Amino acid sequence: MRSIATFLLLIPAVAGLVTAAGPVPRKAAEFVIQHPDGKQELLSSYRGKTVVLALMFTTCSHCQKTAGVLSGVQKEYEGKGVQVLGATINPDAAKDIQMFNKVFGVTFPCGITNEGAARQFLGLAKDEPYFVPILVFIDKTGTVRSQYIGDEKFLGNQEVNIRAELDKLMKGGASSSKAAPAKGPKS
Questions:
Q1: In CATH, what is the architecture of 2-170?
Q2: What band does 170 get if pLDDT is binned at 50, 70 and 90?
């Protein structure tokens, strides 16, 4: 009975993950991804392209799967004005990022950033819980059109949903994610 009561108390907290993040649509703030070689990737340098920004942990199996899916998406959409970017935000990401990129065959720019920068970009409060991976879809004008936090139903069928979201954005459709949370990946 105690676990049922605890579960029921957690439902509003999980639902808050989706609604508490920054409003969508919104202008994308600058976001910096640091690469192991010292180079920096600026989100603003991709203005004019449709961007998928993935925030992940190098140690999260769901994030590792997402990296593989996004590598396929990058290959498929590279000539269509789409750019996938990745930033790992776990504490050991700096020492793990090169192995992460190699082992999971990452074909898009993927580096590290700090959790504070990721929270600020997403519009999450300092102590607000979240799940990874997180996908942010940004249109050609630099506007965040949707974002999906790791426990949302959208991430349950990434192969289909990411492509559908990109196709909609490339056609100029304005998407907005405020879907109800569903059981899914947590790390």
A1: 3-Layer(aba) Sandwich (3.40)
A2: very high
